[in-house]
């Protein structure tokens, strides 16, 4: 959290609300610190999910978010 202001690249932060390995409070803290620094990440929490997505609805939503995120932030290589 102390280095959040140094992150200047776009960031997608997906969290499972029931994740025991990476608690959502950690993600929320990073999200809040980055937002305060002026570089708000794209953040999503999946209810009833742990460290990986088991529900098909979460998998589909995540895949769509990744596709949108990459389409928005990746630029074609210069010739």
From TrEMBL:
Residues of the Peptidase S9 prolyl oligopeptidase catalytic domain: 5-75
Superkingdom of the organism of origin: Bacteria
Tagged with keyword Hydrolase: yes
Alphabetized InterPro entries for the sequence: AB_hydrolase_fold, Peptidase_S9_cat
Gene3D superfamilies reported in the protein's UniProt record: alpha/beta hydrolase
UniProt keywords, alphabetically: Aminopeptidase, Hydrolase, Protease
The protein's name in its UniProt record: Dipeptidyl aminopeptidase/acylaminoacyl peptidase
UniProt lineage: Bacteria, Pseudomonadati, Pseudomonadota, Betaproteobacteria, Burkholderiales
């Amino acid at each position: 959290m102390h280095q959040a202001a140094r992150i200047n690249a776009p960031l997608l932060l997906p969290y499972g609300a029931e994740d025991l390995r990476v608690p959502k409070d950690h993600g929320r803290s990073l999200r809040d610190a980055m937002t305060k620094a002026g570089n708000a990440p794209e953040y999503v929490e999946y209810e009833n999910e742990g460290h990986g997505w088991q529900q098909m609805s979460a998998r589909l939503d995540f895949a769509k978010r990744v596709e949108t995120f990459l389409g928005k932030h990746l630029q074609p290589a210069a010739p």
